[in-house]
C-alpha cells in the first residue's frame, strides 16, 4: 500500500472504475490520464484515484476533478488526455463533456450539458 506525500498536490482526479465505466473504456481512460500526467511531469501536482461507481453510469466513463468539482462524462482516452492538458495543466475546463460543476454551494448542470438529469434521491424523513 502506498502513502503519497500530497503537500504539493493541486488537483485530485477521481476516475470511475465501476463496472459500467469499465465496460466503456475505464481502464484505457485511467491509463491515458496517468500517462499524460507523467508525460507532462505533473505527478507531484495531480493525484489520481480509481473509484467504484460514482452514481452516473449513463455518463460512463466518469472522471471527476477536484477541488473544482467538475464532473466529466464519456471520457475516452483522447478526452482524458485533453482533460489533463487543458483543465489540469492549462486551467481551462473542457466544457463539451461537463455534466456537473460545483458553484461553492451545490452541483449544477451547465446549460450546455447534454447529460441526462437522472433520478431523484430520496429525501430524508426528519
Ligand atoms: S460505474 Fe462509473 S458511474 Fe457508475
UniProtKB/TrEMBL annotation:
Pfam families per record: 2Fe-2S_thioredx
One GO MF term attached to the UniProt entry: iron-sulfur cluster binding
Domain of life: Bacteria
UniProt keywords, alphabetically: Iron, Iron-sulfur, Metal-binding
Keyword Iron: yes
InterPro entries, per database record: Thioredoxin-like_sf
PANTHER family for the chain: NADH-QUINONE OXIDOREDUCTASE SUBUNIT F
Name of the protein in its database record: (2Fe-2S) ferredoxin domain-containing protein
Originating species: Metabacillus sediminilitoris
Amino acid at each position: 500500500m502506498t502513502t503519497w506525500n500530497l503537500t504539493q498536490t493541486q488537483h485530485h482526479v477521481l476516475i470511475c472504475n465501476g463496472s459500467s465505466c469499465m465496460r466503456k473504456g475505464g481502464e484505457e481512460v485511467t491509463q491515458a490520464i496517468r500517462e499524460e500526467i507523467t508525460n507532462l511531469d505533473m505527478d507531484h501536482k495531480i493525484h489520481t484515484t480509481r473509484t467504484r461507481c460514482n452514481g452516473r453510469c449513463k455518463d460512463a466513463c466518469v472522471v471527476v476533478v477536484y477541488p473544482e468539482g467538475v464532473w466529466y462524462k464519456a471520457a475516452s482516452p483522447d478526452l482524458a488526455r485533453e482533460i489533463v492538458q487543458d483543465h489540469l495543466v492549462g486551467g481551462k475546463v473542457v466544457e463539451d463533456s461537463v455534466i456537473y460543476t460545483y458553484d461553492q454551494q451545490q452541483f449544477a448542470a451547465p446549460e450546455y450539458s447534454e447529460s441526462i438529469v437522472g433520478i431523484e434521491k430520496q429525501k430524508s424523513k426528519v
